[in-house]
Amino acid sequence: MNLRQFYKLLLFVLLIPALSSCFEIVEEINMRNNGTGDVTLTINLSQSKTKVASVMLLDSIQGYKVPSKQKIQSELAEAVAYLKKSEGISNVKSSSNFTNYIATISFTFKDVSNINNITKNILAKQKIKATNTSSYSFNKATKVFSRKYQPVANAKSEFNKLKNQDKAVFNGAMYTSIYRFESPVTNVTNPASNLSKSKKAVMLKSSIINLINGKVNVSNQIQLLK
Questions:
Q1: With contact defined as beta carbons under 8 Å apart, do 218 and 211 qualify?
Q2: What is the DSSP string of 61-81?
Q3: pLDDT tens digits, residue range 190-216?
Q4: What does the pLDDT read at residue 21?
Q5: What is the tens place of the pLDDT at every residue in 141-150?
Q6: How far is CA 187 from CA 141, 158, 196, 206, in A?
Q7: Cα distances (Å, whole numbers) of residue 217 to 13, 37, 72, 99
Q8: Helices 113-125/69-84 angle, 10° precision
Q9: Cα distances (angstroms) measured from residue 194 to each of 26, 89, 148, 184
Q10: N or C: more exposed end of the chain, with fewer CB within 10 A?
Q11: Which residues contact 226 (CB under 8 A, 6 or more apart)?
């Protein structure tokens, strides 16, 4: 998973590196059999909302400038504007809850590969050289949903350069991916996957620290009932 690269929404996390060590990034993809679908991306800091609320009152902390609510909303609005102009993307929405500190972006795609193009273009826009990729595909004929993940080659070494107080931000931070389908799932290749009772949803959960250190891989190939 390209955490620091996965859409403009994740700049919300980059803007608040000193706010909380207990946050969750949730990626949800709802796939339809015709190849279209919906994406919802959520950053949830509700478990640390009291701490976050206190920090939001400051100008800076640990050398980082604390963003205002207006700045966060501006970043979300910029992400929405970009997504609305992206090929194959429609129904773009965002929300920001400053009571529980939850930010969300959602949109509909014509083909899941449209997500790959968005990621690539945002990286180029931010002048970020992609050292990893996370690409998606769905074969309507074989009914196979795939996610290919390439770990960041230098993520661990870059992480180790951080100060201990900055590393601590990621303690307890989690990443969750949830893929939902119209047809039952018959097989998944990632052993860390959890299949719902209905067999129409697959969840994979990992600590962000383990992703950074390359201890887990979120690649998956999901076979649906033909």
A1: yes
A2: ETTEEPPPHHHHHHHHHHHHH
A3: 999 999 999 999 999 998 888 878 888
A4: 54
A5: 999 999 998 7
A6: 16, 36, 12, 20
A7: 21, 24, 30, 34
A8: 130
A9: 15, 29, 18, 13
A10: C
A11: 142, 143
How far, in Å, CA of 55 to CA of 7, rounded?
25
Tokens found for residue 69:
């609510």
Indicate whether 163 pLDDT > 80.
no
143 in Cβ contact with 226 (< 8 Å): yes
With H, G, I as helix, E, B as strand and everything else as coil, classify residue 59: coil
**Separation CA 3–CA 1 (nearest Å):** 6
- In the block, tokens 């796939």 appear at 31
Q: What is the tens place of the pLDDT at every residue in 34-43?
A: 999 999 988 8
CA–CA separation, 37 and 28 (whole Å): 10
Structure-block tokens of residue 204: 């994979």
